[in-house]
Amino acid sequence: MTDGAWVSLFSGGKDSSWALYRALERGYPVERLVTVHPDGDSYMYHVPATRLASLAAESVGVPLVEVEPDDFDADDVPDSGAQGDAELEPLEAALRDLDAELDGGIGGVTAGAVESEYQTTRIEAMAERLEANVFAPLWQENPRDLADAMLDAGFEIRIVRVAAYGLDESWLGRTLDADALDELEALHDEYGVHILGEGGEFETLVTDGPHMDRRIELAYETEWDGTRGTIRVTDAWLA
């Protein structure tokens, strides 16, 4: 294990939560969670329900650092690559502040990337500039095996956004269980839907897990435009 504190790049979704859980399981000294709140759609970050990350962090028992939309200035950036780099700047600035603040600096960061070279190369380059290691336990693993492992560990995963052919309004707010995974595999075969939503087909929120002291309870409404939808959380609290 490297010297220094570990920081978890954290959205509250299943992938970043799994990376955090596995890091804690290994005994990595995770001292901060860092959540970026994108303003609108993002090339780099999980978008919906990131405001609930503060509840998740409270349940996990690790302090949260939040990077706000006002920190972004990518309106005039013409292409996705440049936008991704611009979006990374406030995150890297926050990590540099933590590197100076934490005893021993930052020794490593956790990341929930599964297949996205776009995200992974940027996170690895950022970590290299910070002289920190990257722990990415989902990277290039079998998607169904990962999903089964999350459920076997006791993760409770809710779908908070869908944007893919074959995923209708009934998926909004649905708990990701074995039956849902079977359906997602069938949708993958028919339409190419990624079983973990890696292509943006759906987004999730982990409402309970073995690393959390209390589960997150939600009250919400669904918003559906005929092809895609999201849940609009009206209240959220720790049980």
UniProtKB/TrEMBL annotation:
<feature type="domain" description="Diphthamide synthase">
    <location>
        <begin position="7"/>
        <end position="234"/>
    </location>
</feature>
<dbReference type="InterPro" id="IPR002761">
    <property type="entry name" value="Diphthami_syn_dom"/>
</dbReference>
<dbReference type="GO" id="GO:0017178">
    <property type="term" value="F:diphthine-ammonia ligase activity"/>
</dbReference>
<protein>
    <submittedName>
        <fullName>Diphthine--ammonia ligase</fullName>
        <ecNumber>6.3.1.14</ecNumber>
    </submittedName>
</protein>
<dbReference type="InterPro" id="IPR014729">
    <property type="entry name" value="Rossmann-like_a/b/a_fold"/>
</dbReference>
<dbReference type="InterPro" id="IPR030662">
    <property type="entry name" value="DPH6/MJ0570"/>
</dbReference>
<dbReference type="Pfam" id="PF01902">
    <property type="entry name" value="Diphthami_syn_2"/>
</dbReference>
<keyword id="KW-0436">Ligase</keyword>
<dbReference type="InterPro" id="IPR022427">
    <property type="entry name" value="MJ0570_ATP-bd"/>
</dbReference>
<dbReference type="GO" id="GO:0017183">
    <property type="term" value="P:protein histidyl modification to diphthamide"/>
</dbReference>
